Amino acid sequence: MTRKIAALALGLTLVLAACGGAGEDDDGGGGSAGAPGNTAGFDGKTIKLGVLTPLSGTVAVIGQPLTAGNEVWFEALNAKGGVAGKYKVELVQEDTQYKTDIAVQKYNKIKSDVVAFTQVLGTAPTLAVLPQLKTDKILAAPASLDALWVREENLLPVGGPYQVQAINAMEYHFTDGGGTTSDRICTMIQDDVYGEAGQQGIDFAAEKYGFTVTNTQKFKVGTENYAGQIGALAGAGCQVVFLVATPSDAAKIWGTAAQARFAPQWFGQSPSYTGALAKSAVAPYMQQSVLIVSEGTEWGDNSVPGMTQMVADATQYASDQEPDYYFAFGYNQARAMTAVLEKAVELGDLSREGILRASNELDTVTFDGLTGDYRYGATEDRNPPRSSTVFKVDPSKPFGLAKVKYNFSSDAAKEFEFKKADL
Amino acid sequence: MTTFLTNVFAGLALGSTYALVALGFVVIYKSTGVINFAQGGLLALGAYLGYTFADNLAIAFAVSILLACAAAAIVGASVERLVLRRMVGQPPFAVIMITIGLLFVIEPLITAIWGFDNLPLANPWNIQTVEVGGLVLGVRDLWTIGITAAVVVAFFLFFRYTRMGLAMRATAFDPEAALAQGISARRVYATSWAIAAALAALAGITLAAGPGGLSPSISFIALAAFPAMILGGLDSPAGAVLGGVIIGLAEALTRGYQDQLFSWAGANVSLIVPYLLMIVILLIRPYGLLGTKDVRRI
Q: Which of B43, B142, B259 to substitute to test the interface with A, most A CBs within 10 Å?
């Protein structure tokens, strides 16, 4: 009899546990498998997600298309019923102006209204809000390819980090580009964390492939005259230059190089490029001398399913959207966050803790060729994509880029280890 | 030798832009005693106006420059008329704070009208080059140097031979005595602002004609030109030009010889050099290279 009661009690416990606590969880979020209960940012019908991005200021050229990518993904998802086919998603957007103090202020303004942040744009704003994300146990997706994010539990990065781009650029140079390890390979990098990430990748590649970095030129963002740096690179006889910059500086750098008739093989890390460059006076020089290392495929490439779907969604929900790399990034980010939300709904818990748990239990998320698949899960097990695509500048293409080598991964990139940083 | 000459040329071109900006600072300071922190905003506004004339309205580039300078001059004079005239006789600190406020008003205004995108300014220079004795020179850089030289000559002629130039010099020297002689200080102030804004527009357009195109951050150059103005002497137009050229050359040569001579000092020593030069010269000559020593009775 006692055994029967014990078995019944155990069975009841298991059933209750399995049913979860939809609407029963006092601290919000629900139980473990039923419908998730109401919680901050979720009223039982709509899931609210935060967006901290520069919608004004000099970096708005990135923040606006990236947010448009977020919006289009979720509008298409909502049209299909929403997360798990039943919960619509709404974005709560705040303008950070790409300033860390404003990012923190806006984070605090909306953190109680959202279940997670589907976008925090930029390395510096992400670093600024990270301590509070940890304290508040909130998940956020950084719009930045910095390797620092890979091992952070509160962050949900997408895409191959900058180091991977740099390593794969060298792989391309030695395999398809006809280069040898005796070439004079140089770097020109922004004097900040973003620049260091690219340099770290090149240094790793130098060790793996056995070449020497002949010369490195650093510069401060917004430098007006690059004659000195270009002169130094030319003087060092550089045959290959890996550039880590943002478009405004990259245009001046390539313009100065064109004027100096210095034409090595340039590899530009993805944020160095924007579509406007393909329509600028520097375009002819770039067509001859510049390759861009990025991810995914060229805009409108119907051989890649993810691109076909994204262009269709963009046409339907943002018909005036120009082809843009950052739009695709935002679209991918939203897709990764959706995978987390689907998992959280599956676990019956949309609370902050529930979403972190869902992120930890997530497996590989595929992006249908728009970017490499990302193995999520516990931070120590995360494995970002090691793939890159090399593009050449072609003004006749949308966004001015034509793919040269699509979605390849070098052995060296696969060997690169992402370590947890003390943030 | 080619490397040295290339760096000198780059320094002269950069210094010419600094000189144009610094001249704008000096013109206003000389006549009103105020450092105009909105100069960077006027520079950006002038460049965007140039873009509107050259690209949106497809007006010839040379005409667009003139129209942009004229439009900027009207804006400058209007700012003086509507805002700063009310501050005549008030402490300089309050007026300076107003110019800082103006900068923060102009910048969002620009982005509200033209947006944040990098805009390519249609111009005949772009990245064209000419080769002189084995030295490759940028056409835009040559034009910037030439325009600055022409402006300096025009300035000299204006101050020396025109009635308004004389009025401006008199007002700068002794406002009360000038007033007693029938010189309108209001006209002098308005003219100063108009000239400074036109100079800023000119500097902005020459900058935007480069490969970097036009973006709201173009106004930052005014901060870089600041040491040029201080170094040359706050009240000296000739000092502004000299200061601009010195700072431009110092920056370009330090950058060019960074690897050989300054690698021990970090990657961006060329950005520190203008300020180091400014400090050293101010220690020796507190009023700048060509500034007027302020004599006071004790």
A: B259
Whether residue A192 sits in one domain with residue A102:
no
Q: What is the pLDDT of residues A119-156, one digit of tens each?
A: 999 888 999 999 999 999 999 999 999 888 999 999 99
Give the pLDDT score at B296: 52
Nearest to B221 among A58, A224, A247 (CB): A224
Residue A185, pLDDT above cutoff 50: yes
Residue B298: predicted pLDDT: 52
Interface membership of A376 toward B (CB under 8 Å): no
Cβ contact B7:B252 at 8 Å: yes
B270 in contact with chain A, both atoms CB, cutoff 8 A:
yes
Interface contact flag, A191 B268, Cβ < 8 Å:
yes
The verdict on B180 touching A (C-beta cutoff 8 Å) is: no
Per-residue confidence (pLDDT) for residue A278, from 0 to 100: 92
Model confidence pLDDT, tens digit, residues B101-124: 999 999 889 988 998 777 888 899
pLDDT score at B258? 81
A121, A224, A277: best mutation site toward chain B, by most B Cβ within 10 Å? A224
The answer to whether B200 and B37 are in contact (CB under 8 A) is no
- Indicate whether A231 belongs to any domain: yes
Does A137 lie in the same domain as A167?
A: no
Q: Is the pLDDT of residue A13 over 50?
A: no
Residue of A47, A60, A67, A88 whose CA lies nearest to A318 = A67
B212 touches A at CB < 8 Å? yes
Q: What is the rounded distance in angstroms from the CA atom of residue B257 to the CA atom of residue B34?
A: 37
User: What is the number of domains present in chain A?
Assistant: 2
**Number of alpha carbons in the 13 Å side-chain half-sphere of residue A206:** 18
User: What distance in Å separates residue A129's CA from the closest CA in chain B?
Assistant: 25
Does A179 share its domain with A252?
Answer: yes
For residue A19, the model assigns a pLDDT of 39
The answer, for B258 touching chain A at a CB cutoff of 8 Å, is yes
